[in-house]
Amino acid sequence: EAHEQYLFQIIFQRASQLHYLVTYEGYMKPTDFDPPTGERIVSYLSILACSGRSEKLRTFARGLVEKVKTIGPIVFAAPELGRFSTAGGLGVMVDELTKGMVSLGMEVYVISPVYTVNRKGETGYLQRDGFRWTRNIDVNLGTHVVTCGMYEGQEHGVNLIFIERGDYFPKVYADTGTQEKLLQTIILMSLGSLEACCHKGLVPSVFVTNDWMPAMAAGYAKNGFFGSYFDNTTFFHIIHNLGDGAYEGRVYPSPQQGLFESVHRLPTHVLVDPWWAQKIVNPSRCALLCSDSWGTVSPSYLQELLAGHPLKVALESAKKPFGFPNGIRQADRERLLREKGAQDHAAAKELLQQKYFGFEQGDPSIPLLAFVGRITSQKGVHMILNAVDELVNHTGGKIQILVGGPATYSDDYSASCARHMHDLRNRHRWCFWAAPDEFFTDGPTVNLGADFGLMPSVFEPGGIVQQEFFVAGTPVIAYRTGGLKDTVHEWNDISREGNGFTFENYHHNDFTFAVKRALRVFSMHNDYLELRRSAYDTTIDVAQVAWAWTSEFHRLRNAMFTRHHMLEDDMKEAVLTDSDSSFELVSSTRAVKIEYMGGGTSVAVKGAFDGWNQSWPMKMRDDGVAEIWLRLAPGEYTHKFLVDGHWVVAPDAPKKEEDGFENNLLVVP
């Protein structure tokens, strides 16, 4: 029976996905039937759970309902987050994804460090935004125990938990000074996130670690550090960037330090690959070997990782890793473009030409190419700088290239680019602008005002910048790697499809040839306008991304995606349908309405209808009365109401005492 239930669980979960694949991912709708939603399937299973023709059928249905319903809390552990501490794409992606999942009705938490100073150099930013200290938690770092502060609050429906320990979290990705402290910072983030869940009584259905800082969480949860607390939790690891050793969070112990066994206290093999020439403590290896599965921010980057990454063996331990491109909150971004950019492309371009190139009024005939981002070797900024002289000569000086982003002079690559920028700006005042000593603040204006975005990244796991250009209607010139390969497509002037220009080989001539193809289309005004429209149409909204990840988490749990407010309506429709003759129900069942008139914002009912198996969410009517429709056989049914988290008896309804407990009584004649 358990095996049969498991098979049905998978069948129903897969069947429910088809409706959402049609809705969110563009799958072709079947011609002969409407794919059922998760709500519809759960509604009919719930009727069977209450009024199935036999006790065996009712028991079977009750077990299925409990297993296939929407999963419980999803917890993300992330080293950076949104406006608080974003340093790159990870913070943006987690921020956007979690808000999108809340919009789908999911219960979502994010656990992240609170840094002594945020990315703007501000202190005390959490208190200013209304987040409050709730408790202290102790975390064992192997050599000693540290006490951390815990702050909580909510933003856009996402529950936020911040862990404070200034000597370990001074600022995002701070240099820890020693290898032992680097490992202890990782342990603090990993163990601290799990401790926070325990202190709140929060049992995640899915616990999602992001990159290397919280990567050891699955290792601790599955090696007895918390007893059985996380036994029913699915652990999932998202790889945002696994480009080199630094992005893996590698820790390099000295020969005298051994492998830091007394610090991490985990089985050595989950952290150290015995076949590597150098013994390295690798938290990313721990995440891959101990998590139930992993995913990344684009299908192409997933394939690149499996093809030849140093952690290939650990990556292959997952049966079915997941990849989906990043997206943005399109409506919010369009609002930001209007508020901080300009009314349209032409107006934004004129603002850029006036502010950065000294024009008194704009010249729409001059193509404006722009890069916005960090000055790092990954982003390939040198490719742009090395092409400036050639492109200025090629266009007779009728081109403008803007590079927005600060340089880090402690990094040799970044410092070299900064010197090159100063030289180009001195020689091409009207054609080139960069200010590597300043923080660039006009990103939205550039997204809207540029004629082309430049993304010559050497590697780019997912990328969010291309979506910020696309939502403004700006095509992108990009190297075909990782997530850029999945999202930037060469403009086809015959089919009139595409959103930019790409180059296959990472070489100067290939890059400049892509730019020259873009300039040719720019010179044909109508074609260029059509390209901008096409670029806008390819924007990936975070709703698609949120659905994709939510679907994957439900797949891992063999659960169906259901929305409470729609489940209530589907239950009513299914109950009011006379289905005795076509459904395996006890004869003479009838539709019964249960009401609760005592107020409250969240009301559910639980009772003998299905053997006290589940809480049934009730729909709140406009008159403040909560109701639910059930199909029940004649008989007596004791029940109780869960109102805003508290079990209560409705004072205006019949009551019955059982074993010293008072419940409401429903009699179905």
TrEMBL record:
Cited Pfam families: AMPK1_CBM, Glyco_transf_5, Glycos_transf_1
Residues of the Glycosyl transferase family domain: 367-520
All residue ranges annotated as the AMP-activated protein kinase glycogen-binding domain in the record: 592-668
UniProt KW Repeat keyword: no
Localization per record: Plastid, Amyloplast
InterPro entries: AMPK1_CBM, Glyco_trans_1, Ig-like_fold, Ig_E-set, Starch_synth_cat_dom
Chain ranges of the Starch synthase catalytic domain: 74-307
SUPFAM superfamilies the UniProt entry points to: E set domains (SSF81296), UDP-Glycosyltransferase/glycogen phosphorylase (SSF53756)
Domain of life per record: Eukaryota
Alphabetized UniProt keyword annotations: Amyloplast, Glycosyltransferase, Plastid, Transferase
A GO molecular function held by the record: glycosyltransferase activity
Protein name: Uncharacterized protein
